[in-house]
Amino acid sequence: MEKPSLTIIIPAYNVSDSLAKCVESVVNQDFHQWQAIIVDDGSTDNTLDIANDLAEKDGRITVIHKDNGGLSDARNHGLDLLFGVLPQGDSTLFHGTPYVTFIDSDDYISPSTMGPLMKELNIHPEYDLLEYSATLHSGSKREAQLTLTDTIYTSPRDYWLRGKGYSHSYSWNKIYRSTVFSSGLRYPKGKIFEDVWMLPYILKACKTVATTAMGQYVYMDNPKGITHAADRSADLLAQLFHAQIEAMRLLEIDFSATSLSKEEARLYLSLRNQQTAIKRLDPNHPTLLPARRIPFSAATTIRELAKVAYYRWTDLFQTRTKR
What we know:
This protein is an alpha/beta fold.
């Protein structure tokens, strides 16, 4: 068997109805130099049996079974196996593939996704991270397309601001150079919105980040998932908000400047909207984002334009009231 160049880590917990489709979407790709690690995170249904059956059919698949520890812990176990931190046992898994990616076990990738992406990485060995397009909330009324442009970023701050990385900080629609994680960088255990917490650290370990319109990751909508729950919970929204604030600190984005660039203003508007949503659910939640004048250029839609007008009016009213 040809030595693989890509490791695909698939965390799995009670996904007996979707795991086979997820893995088959990998097996049927037009790119074959991959190895997959299915990490069964203490499933209580027959997920592990399905994973083992899939591994028996394809020698490129390895299965790890562990006690339940959450999504971050499952991803970390896959990384630890890749880098030899965990014993390999009788697995035929190769260590040291130059690239690694994640696919959630209730999602899948469209045909002919990995071939073009890996070809792009072969052409551009300087890329430390390649992010590709995705379908979001597939199968629901919230379905939307994340269509990225072919763009190169040599600054984490530039990717976060100009590339609006804060709005698509997912772990799964990205292929990473393995050395990004080889120094011990791992996902935070016990954190909700672990992707948002983690991505700024990943970016700081990258010299070059690229996005592409090629490929398609399909993120299936989950009505019981954290994204839906966050819409109704001040606590969950606050955790996402705090993750974004921490990202600003790590990437040295400061809103105290006399004037904001258009990209900084758009990020500020996004965060201001999050804070407003939290306040609507919990009026007693502390205000962490300083009020400041938002230029109308920050708005990209009519709805955002209305938001900017509203914030400008309320901030002016509050300032006059305090006087």
